Amino acid sequence: MVAISANADQLYIGIDGGGTKCRATIFSPAKGVLGTGLGGPANPLHGLDRTLESIMVSTQLAIENAGLSLSSVNDMVAGLGLAGVNLPSLYSQIIEWHHPFKKMFLTTDLHTACIGAHEGGDGAVIITGTGSCGFAYVNGKSTIYGGHGFAQGDKGSGAWMGLEAVKVSLLALDGLGPQTSITNAVMAQLQAKDSMAIAEKMAGKPSSVYATLARLVIECANQGDEVAVAIVKDGAGYISDLAAKLMENNPPRLSMIGGLAEPLQKWLRPEIAALVKTPKQPPEMGAVYYAQSSFAV
Amino acid sequence: MVAISANADQLYIGIDGGGTKCRATIFSPAKGVLGTGLGGPANPLHGLDRTLESIMVSTQLAIENAGLSLSSVNDMVAGLGLAGVNLPSLYSQIIEWHHPFKKMFLTTDLHTACIGAHEGGDGAVIITGTGSCGFAYVNGKSTIYGGHGFAQGDKGSGAWMGLEAVKVSLLALDGLGPQTSITNAVMAQLQAKDSMAIAEKMAGKPSSVYATLARLVIECANQGDEVAVAIVKDGAGYISDLAAKLMENNPPRLSMIGGLAEPLQKWLRPEIAALVKTPKQPPEMGAVYYAQSSFAV
């Protein structure tokens, strides 16, 4: 690769693609953030065409938001953080795309989230949203724990917590498990009047639907429901273990990202909770930093 | 309904339809079992056309096996036990089918399994195969516990046990859970060399695929692996609770049916294990009894 020195006028676009949405941010080293755009799902595991479409939609919206001409896309250096591209086949499919950018650099969404959280520096992140995963990037070496997907992995995630909520509700309704306030909360949210209705409404649903029930478990736990407390402690215990494992890689900083990061924080083991630092920048800015550092090489 | 008295020459066909296969048995009160046939999947939840096709294939094979002419199907009184027909919509779809039988009586697979296990008498059954469920039929009243489907219900079943096997393997490989001999057994069976390969091979797989791993957990538990023992005890504990709950309905007999019935028996609580009686007849004979008793009304 030819070394090109960084240029203050160079435009960068950072793109963070996930299972439900795709965010793009246009950045100029001289002027900062110029515009942002939001597109649809961009997880290549769930479809390449949809992913590329969402990338282009978020890019075009960011260009419009920045007040730039659409042709400016050809001058931009892009950084992409996408789920699933740790698989060689998906990495190749994206990298072989005839993209419109001046140059495109591709890595995992975990990597760009980590770079963003630590503003370009080394560090570790725990993602606890619909799924859960731990990632460390230290001295050029990346390490992943968890992230094995619903329902076999992703402990401590929203989908995991939602599945546990359904399980304890069904057991309680059968008189085969302890009574819990989760049951009524789940029945109300699903508008299900008995166990068979719960089972029918949830059968075969994707992780994102289970994740909508996680909030109920946290609320019941915060009100002292014993079954809910046990679930949240079990999930938070795993996240604490994940954090301790990540710290074995000696990251200078550790952050938590995702919808459950804030509500779970107080349930972590105290020595772990004390380690967790607020993310400095969002994943799409991590993708900008990744584009900058890759382009500068 | 016009009352028709039972006739020793009347032919009955009992059909037991499940998620993987459909069994048909032709029975004559005068001569006993005349023939049997095996067809493909017959769970109307997973497709009506396929179910009706499997019913007809198993029926035709049973007719050939009995050495009867195909037209004899029009003289037979059929009893059908099918999963899912406790849902009114599925019951209607099957009952409205232009079937070839002289008469057709439809009930759930649980009901015919129970009738078969107790040779026509009242009783209770626990199914522990790919899924798990408890059913009691006493004094004309049926009661169901569990059977809420994978992965939210069906505790103690093969699919549940297989999912637990995958979970503990992934945790162990990440160094986030105790080491267990299950891990190597799962990796060998799946031909997966690391946690990501396990996750990829199992992602989105149906319950029947998870159930193929249950045997490994039982084997590891029988060899004293602590993690495997904990899983099997947890599952067997639920099945024991299910049995105790069924006994509240005062069934004269209790049987266990399904692929895990025999291996789980020694892990049940002793007072429960002592209650479990061998099923007298298979579910397709239960369907024959159901046809006979319904036709005689």
From TrEMBL, chains A, B:
Against PANTHER family, the record matches this protein to:
N-ACETYL-D-GLUCOSAMINE KINASE
CDD domains linked: ASKHA_NBD_GspK-like
Q: Which InterPro entries match?
A: ATPase_BadF (IPR002731), ATPase_NBD (IPR043129), Euk-type_GlcNAc_Kinase (IPR052519)
In Swiss-Prot or TrEMBL terms, this protein is called ATPase BadF/BadG/BcrA/BcrD type domain-containing protein
**Organism listed in the record:** Pseudoalteromonas tunicata D2
One Pfam family assigned to this protein is BcrAD_BadFG
The record ties this protein, via SUPFAM superfamilies, to: Actin-like ATPase domain
Q: Residue limits of the ATPase BadF/BadG/BcrA/BcrD type domain?
A: 13-288
